[in-house]
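Table S4 entry, ABC transporter permease.
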Amino acid sequence: MSTLVATSAPEARSSQGFRVAMLLPGALVTLLLILFALGLVLFLAFRGNDGSLLGAGFTVANFVTVVSDPLYWTVTLRSLIIAALVTLATVVTAYPVAYYLAFHAGRRRGLLLFLVTLPFWTSYLLRVFAWKIVLAYNGVLNSALIESGIWSEPTLAFLNTPAAVVVTLAHAYAPFAILPIYVALDTIPKSLIEAASDLGARPFTSFRRIVLPNSMPGVLAAALVVFVPTVGDYVTPALVGGPASTMIGTLIQAQFGKANDWPFGAALSVAVMLVILCVVLVARFADRRFGSRT
């Protein structure tokens, strides 16, 4: 017995040391890259702009401007609406795909999952430019409509619109929504659905009472994964959206770029982070409600 205790103690220490060694790189990256970056943004947000990199003095004037200027409220609200539409479109289209992968794909599941992750192999900018080609005045969509006889001449109704931003972002973030929903659906015991069927439940009833409630954590995770980055996106509105599609990320990028006002850009970033934090807290509360029900 004493021999077992003596040999288990070094093994426990070795296992603990291995865990620390494996966690250390990730902890350092988190500390240096994420926390340091957030701390720098918070520091800059309370600085005054004097043209230097770190600003001068401490002030709350940046936040006063953010709160008092209706321009930033309008653009922030537009960003939230576009992000919400993108999230809705992405989740609604991703759920059937994830459902098929979880319950009906069979032996083709591995291949289909590979095809779902295939867009990750290409650059995000290339996918945005592809949609720009599709929606352009002489693009694929206009050409197809003219060739089919639906329209007689090209139209500018597709590109440089909020709808173009929503479609492009929904396509770009579709894999990020499919995968968490698929994981949630795949963990649902098939025996529950079979038992419901044996008890006379129709397929829609089984879906409504068993599948959908148990998959809601995955749906909420997918919604957050899509919503959070799309609120601050500025590349897609700049490429396929017009002035009516300007989002808060575009204004933040302009402050750090052409305007050379890093403190005000940091204050805008902090304001957006606070808004996103409120959304995350609401989603977490909803997740707990669904978790308690299921």
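Residues 1-6 have pLDDT under 50 and may be disordered.
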